[in-house]
Amino acid sequence: MQILDKRLPIAWVLGIPFTYFVTAYLENFYPTSFQVALIAVIVHSLANLFFYYLLGRAMRDFRSKPFDSVLIAGLFAALIVFIPAMYYMASLYPNLFNNTAFHIDANVRVSFLNALIPPFFVAMVLVQVARRKNWRETRFFKFIDENLEGLLIAFLFFCVYLIFASIFNRPSYDADDIFFDADGNLYRWRFATPDYRDYYWRPAHPYILLIVRPLVGILALLFRGDTLFAAFTLNALTGALCVYLVWYFVKHSVGNLPFALLIAALFGASSTQLVFGSVIESYIYLSAIALIFLVLLLKDSPLYLQVIAGVVAFGITFTNVAQTFIAHFFVKRNIKQIIIYGIVIGALVVPLSLLNNLVYPDSQPYFWDISTLGGEGHNQFPPTFHRAEYLAIVMGFHSFVAPEPLVIRDGFPFPKVWMFRASIKKDPMQLANYETPLGDGLVIVWAGLLILGGVFFLKNIRKQDNGYFFTFILTSLFFFVFYLRYGKDVFLYATNWTYAIILFLALAWRKLADKHWFQIFLLVFVMLLLVNNSHLYETMLRISSPTVSFPIWR
Questions:
Q1: Cβ-based neighbour number of residue 1 at 10 Å
Q2: Under a CB-based contact definition with an 8 Å cutoff, are residues 277 and 161 in contact?
Q3: d(C-alpha 55, C-alpha 274), whole Å
Q4: Is residue 179 classed as helix, strand or coil in its secondary structure?
Q5: What 3 state SS string does 323-344 have?
Q6: pTM score
Q7: Is the separation of the CB atoms in 472 and 291 below 8 Å?
Q8: What are phi and psi of 307, to 5 degrees?
Q9: Which strand (E) or helix (H) includes residue 408?
């Protein structure tokens, strides 16, 4: 009881920021004093329990592994500071960022403050009940205990992605191609409004609506039917899921917890994740399903689960089923099983495409309608050496360490912020460059880390199972060849290879995973990467701000 008395008041205080954030977000839809108080009581009671458990877990971990605990605490502290720093950056652009969505209205703040008191006593009772019921043996507790660090780091990145998802997906951005050639307006329409038709009339996403729109609809139930909030919240959640899956894969394949967290943080802080965890498009969903497929292979899950993941990958963008075949082939090495896998997927994609257009009539052409592929001609370019060089730079460097992006002013309603611009209308190709000492330094260090990973891979190629290594190499090469001919800004497709490169490096660096000096080095690198890549957000805000004359929230 003495330990309970010490930890619960601390847990009660630590839970207040979390409770405020959740309550403020939901207050947009449940604005009355009673509703705010009820939400605060429920959320803060759960927050008290969680932080009570977290304090106990932290003390146990510190006693058994003090260095790991301090390192992990340093990483989480950096991310916790990063969130308000990004919030402050966004608040400098009031015509873009509606910060009232993240604040409790003054009229109900007293109700919120009063509602913080009962959860202390509720949590006190629940802790005693949980102890008597031996809560540590429940499946829920075991899941949280085994995945705590991964869930925490995913949540922190979710907060970052959500801030900017609430900006860059607002209806005021009523055109495509603004950020990195992404069709943000189209997918906001398709996922969050009744106007679900693909106005570009492309067959490449056969039944994406069947996959994403129901998820938006389910989440909108929490937001009382507000599909816009649901859409950008789902996008941020999917970005956070990718961070969690990277952590999970590295933890279970390498086995070192601090190393897995550092790799997940490196991935979450990459320019790819910061952009596509925030801008609504199809690509973050492709990254998530590719990572899910890899985790299914890692866990040796049943074939039917792999088929479901493969069918989803095909439905979002049909070319992306290729990476599931690559992974299946090199990891399983079972020709019979991969043939069955292919046959089952082939048998399902046609009826699912028909079902998609039955549920959403005239939403897009069928993927087997070859005549509609002609419209993609404006996105195809000659595969020159110069384009290959720029594509390699985008894949290997820009996808992780953000440069100063290109700003293109070509008479479009909005200035464009891109990483790469293909040779359009005989204009020369353009590529973003590193223009700050921090960016220059980080990209040099990153180049060294890439080389180090390649050297370790080649050095141990005969001593290790290379299934996942070859998967990541062939996946990256597949997309390199594909986008050598396709795409105006190839950074748009970075989610297809960023996870593969980071997981390749994580496996290659495994000999250093236990070295404290290497862990400290990665921690410092991640901290500096957060600073550098935050400027990418700042550029997106600064360049687009003058074209948005007044705040439009819904």
A1: 6
A2: yes
A3: 30
A4: strand
A5: HHHHHHHHHHCCHHHHHHHHHH
A6: 0.95
A7: no
A8: -60, -45
A9: strand 406-408
User: What pLDDT does residue 133 have?
Assistant: 73
Rounded to whole angstroms, the Cα distance separating 192 from 281 reads 12
- Separation of alpha carbons 120 and 123, rounded Å: 5
Q: Specify the 3-state DSSP secondary structure of 35.
A: helix
Contact 190, 350 (CB under 8 A): no
> Do residues 154 and 265 make contact, with C-beta atoms less than 8 angstroms apart?
no
Residue 269, token pair as written in the block? 């802080």
Distance (Å, whole) CA 217 – CA 437: 45
Please provide the DSSP assignment of 211-228 as one string: HHHHHHHHHHHHTTT-HH
Q: At what angle do helices 516-544 and 257-268 cross, to 10 degrees?
A: 20
Residue in this structure with the two tokens 């699912």, named with its chain if needed = 352
3-state DSSP of 419-476: CEECCCCCCCCEECECCCHHHHHHHHHHHHHHHHHHHHHHHCCCCCCCHHHHHHHHHH
State how far the Cα of 275 lies from the Cα of 500, in Å rounded to an integer.
Answer: 17
Give 407's contacts (C-beta < 8 A, 6+ positions apart). Answer: 415, 416, 417, 539, 543
Of the candidates 292, 340, 338, 296, the one whose C-alpha atom is nearest the C-alpha of residue 313 is 292
**How many alpha carbons lie under 13 Å from residue 307 in its C-beta half-sphere?**
16
The pLDDT of residue 330 is 96
Q: Which of 406, 432, 526, 535 is nearest to 72 (CA)?
A: 526
Query: 180: buried, middle or exposed (CB in 10 Å: 19+, 13-18, 0-12)?
Result: buried
- Residue 183 CA to residue 311 CA, distance in Å, equals 23
d(CA 316, CA 364): 13
Tokens of 344: 């089952």
- Please give the structure tokens belonging to residue 106: 């003054």
Amino acid at 212: V
d(CA 264, CA 457): 20
Q: Which residues pair with 408 in a beta bridge?
A: 416
Q: Average pLDDT per run of 10 along the chain, which is 554 residues long?
A: 68 94 94 96 94 92 94 96 96 90 92 94 84 77 92 97 95 92 94 92 93 97 94 97 98 95 98 97 96 96 96 95 95 94 96 96 89 69 93 97 94 90 86 96 98 96 93 97 94 97 97 96 98 97 85 50
Residue by residue, DSSP assigns 504-522 as: HHHHHGGGGTT-HHHHHHH
Cα angle 431, 436, 442; round to 5 = 85
Label the pairing between strands 430-431 and 420-421.
Answer: antiparallel
295, amino acid identity: V
CB 403 within 8 A of CB 180: no
Helices and strands counted in the chain (H then E): 20, 4
Which residue is listed with tokens 């989480």? 76
Tokens of residue 293, six digits: 């497929």
CA distance 418 to 406: 5
What gap in Å lies between CA 351 and CA 69, rounded to an integer? Answer: 51
